[in-house]
Amino acid sequence: MPLADKIRPTKIDEVIGQSHIIGRNKVLTKILESPFLPNMIFFGPPGVGKTTVAEIVAKYSSKTFYKINATNSSLEDIKRVVSELEHINNINGVLLYIDEIQSFNKKQQQSILEFMENGKITLIASTTENPYHYVYKALLSRSTVFEFKLLEKNEVVRGLTRAIEILKEESFMDLEYTNEALEDIATISDGDMRRALNILEVAVYATRPNKDNIVIVDSDSIKQSTFKKILNFDKDGDSHYDILSAFQKSIRGSDPQASMHYLARLIKGEDLISICRRLLVIACEDIGLAYPNAITIVKSCVDAAMQVGFPEARIPLAQATLLLATSPKSNSACMAIEKALQELDEEFIKDIPIHIKDAHYSGAKDLGRGSEYLYPHNYKNHYVKQQYLPDSIKDSIYYTPQENKTEQNIKAYLDYINKF
């Protein structure tokens, strides 16, 4: 039996971490103390206690507990559970735990509703993905959602300390450890308790006893086990979009240090196309007219990164990121087009003014097209006042220059020509 299963908590107060939902006067603990058991969805990264808590909930409940994994189960498995319920004569119903529910398609998830609504099944589902993206809305609306978070470093160390005591008892070996070793494991595991326990178990059994027949788990034994830190990154999962979001917001917030951190995490995920695409978007959305040349420079960096590939791509990516993070910011272009698009959806727009319609064809003049058009280059400062917007929205304003040097120059120019 894996060490993770040997030390799995059996009581809610033994659970490590998740103090935002578990503990005195916390919502999940209060649910267990009440006779009412709602449908629940647990979501969060691997190794943070979702399955453990589901099994503890089952022990507090009088319902018959069934557990299935959506990655290798089907609708027939759910029907089998309900069928067995009818034969075991359990008036309290079934508590069904579905692990990795995001692996069920919409039709499979819809089928669960029937059994939830007639009271035959109380559902606990877990997922490593955001349920608001992957769980059927009707099922989601009938469930209470709990987010499970990565464990803190000290929480992982606490779990490892408890695990070592169990290993001592079961293996009958003289086992010692250093605090640095446990902290190293906690760092490598990155908040994943299951991974931390696996690292510890392998390190213990891979370390030879010393001359006194004592197994000492220290930093060297952890390093010799050749464990490499694995960041929580999935090109198709929520962590991918969370890191991209943090990356853009750090650049937008002019924080070059945080921008480098999240770029490094994206590079570890080796999704070069997503990084390049996001940098181009940021150059236009967040830098915009405050530094119009940013997009040109970023495009050059992106092209270079795509051409050389990893690992060298990290250098032009870093250059582009730091340029954007330390540049003046403006979202005026983004705001302007959003206002224009919104107006198209909400307002009745009349025809294009006839004097700016296409007049480059035979018969255009007979239709009055372009006959009253004033050619700006024929006027002083290459400007002449005339109407360009349709009549119904002729006074609409989409673009407003923002408070940066470039756009203040734009504002000064617009103010100047509007005097004529």
UniProtKB/TrEMBL annotation:
One of its GO terms (molecular function) is single-stranded DNA helicase activity. GO terms for biological process: DNA synthesis involved in DNA repair; DNA-templated DNA replication. The keyword ATP-binding applies. Keywords: ATP-binding, Nucleotide-binding. InterPro entries: AAA+_ATPase, AAA_assoc_2, AAA_ATPase_RarA/MGS1/WRNIP1, ATPase_AAA_core, DNA_pol3_clamp-load_cplx_C, MgsA_C, P-loop_NTPase. Signal peptide: none annotated. It comes from the Bacteria. SMART domains: AAA (SM00382). Residues 36-152 form the AAA+ ATPase domain. Transmembrane segments: none annotated. The keyword Glycosyltransferase does not apply. Belongs to the AAA ATPase family. RarA/MGS1/WRNIP1 subfamily. This is Replication-associated recombination protein A. The lineage of its organism: Bacteria, Bacillati, Bacillota, Clostridia, Peptostreptococcales.
